[in-house]
């Protein structure tokens, strides 16, 4: 093996590692946006978490069981299989990282009520209650969640992957 081949292989390994790290970081950022700001306030942003929020609305009101994170994980798996068949292996491998990282981080934040632990409970209560005080809290959650989710998706795309979900479609 020539030194030129070794350099090329080393560069491609470094580039691929950087891409995977970008996808991971993007998924973590997006999970924070969804689980800390959008899901607790029931804000529908148009992604897989929105499907989870909608399904959770009906199930939680009927049974008292919160299932947003479960719906997100199951939806991610189904759409990843579709992406594997339609898009191909390389894209799906980067998205496989997202399939593991995003639902895991989202579920951890969601189930541990991290927002409540860091003092967001008052903001959630006002946002859900509505009224003139609730508008500001709801707007704060919309903007913060939107910025984090958008940044997360951008980072994952920069890493030649995606955060999974509807991005696959």
Short description:
With 169 residues, the protein is an all-alpha fold. The protein has seven helices and no strands.
Largest sheet: none
Provide a count of the helices. Answer: 7
Q: What is the share of helical residues? A: over 70%
Unreliably modeled segments: none
Radius of gyration: 18 Å
Task: Give the total of beta strands.
Answer: 0
User: What spatial form do the alpha-carbon principal axes imply?
Assistant: elongated
The overall pLDDT, averaged over residues, is 88
Beta-strand content: under 5%
First CA to last CA: what distance?
41 Å
The helix-strand sequence is HHHHHHH
Described by its quaternary structure, the protein is single chain
What is the structural class? Answer: mainly alpha
Lay out the secondary structure.
Elements: H1 3-38, H2 48-63, H3 68-86, H4 89-111, H5 114-117, H6 121-129, H7 131-158
Description:
By secondary structure, the chain is mainly alpha-helical. Helices cover 80% and strands 0% of the residues. The chain has seven helices and no strands. The longest helix is centred in the N-terminal third of the chain and has 36 residues, at 3-38. It is elongated and about 60 Å long. The mean pLDDT is 88.
What tags apply to this protein structure?
elongated, 0% strand, single chain, mainly alpha, 169 residues
């Amino acid at each position: 093996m020539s030194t030129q081949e070794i350099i090329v292989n080393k560069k491609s390994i470094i580039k691929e590692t950087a891409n995977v790290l970008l996808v991971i970081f993007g998924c973590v950022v997006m999970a924070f946006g969804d689980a800390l700001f959008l899901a607790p306030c029931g804000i529908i942003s148009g992604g897989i978490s929105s499907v989870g929020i909608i399904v959770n609305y009906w199930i939680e009101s009927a049974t008292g069981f919160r299932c947003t994170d479960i719906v997100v994980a199951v939806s991610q798996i189904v759409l990843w299989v579709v992406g594997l068949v339609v898009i191909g292996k390389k894209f799906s491998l980067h998205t496989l990282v997202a399939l593991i990282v995003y639902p895991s981080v989202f579920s951890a934040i969601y189930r541990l009520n991290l927002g409540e632990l860091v003092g967001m409970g008052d903001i959630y209560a006002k946002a859900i209650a509505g009224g003139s005080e609730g508008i500001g809290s709801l707007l704060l959650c919309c903007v913060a969640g939107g910025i984090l989710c958008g940044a997360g998706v951008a980072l994952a795309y920069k890493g030649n992957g995606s955060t999974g979900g509807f991005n696959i479609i």
